[in-house]
UniProtKB/TrEMBL annotation:
A GO term from the CC aspect: cytoplasm
Organism for this UniProt entry: Capra hircus (Goat)
The protein, known as: Thiosulfate sulfurtransferase like domain containing 1
Xref: Pfam families: Rhodanese (PF00581)
Listed Gene3D superfamilies: Rhodanese-like domain
Any GO BP annotation: sulfide oxidation, using sulfide:quinone oxidoreductase
Length: 114
């Protein structure tokens, strides 16, 4: 994962507390339903590319949330980090320059915050 933009747990806490980032859970719907980080929007990594390319109205209709803007800070996470990294790379390819992976993933969040 070297070279990929990541965010640590303290950074994540700070960004979320200040409202300076949007958090995306890219695990399956079943995984997210069993528990997630508060405030995260669940978009499984398998849907992410099409989701980020939707028209804003279609995105809002499907996910009940505003479509992220290209300049926003987007933090992706999964269970252990692999899908979060894939999501970060995908978002960057689509022009989301503020995309980062929470490298500790849900596993770390659950251990330290849950």
């Amino acid at each position: 994962m070297a070279g990929e933009p990541t965010v640590s747990l303290p950074e994540l806490r700070s960004l979320l507390a200040s409202g300076r980032a949007r958090l995306f859970d890219v695990r399956s719907r079943e995984e997210a339903a069993a528990g997630t980080i508060p405030g995260a929007l669940n978009i499984p990594v398998s849907e992410l590319e099409s989701a980020l390319q939707m028209e804003p109205a279609a995105f809002k209709a499907l996910y009940s949330a505003e479509k992220p803007k290209l300049e926003e800070n987007l933090i992706f996470f999964c269970q252990i980090g692999k899908r979060g990294l894939q999501a970060t790379q995908l978002a960057q390819r689509l022009g989301y320059k503020g995309a980062r992976n929470y490298e500790g993933a849900y596993r770390e969040w659950l251990q330290k915050e849950g």
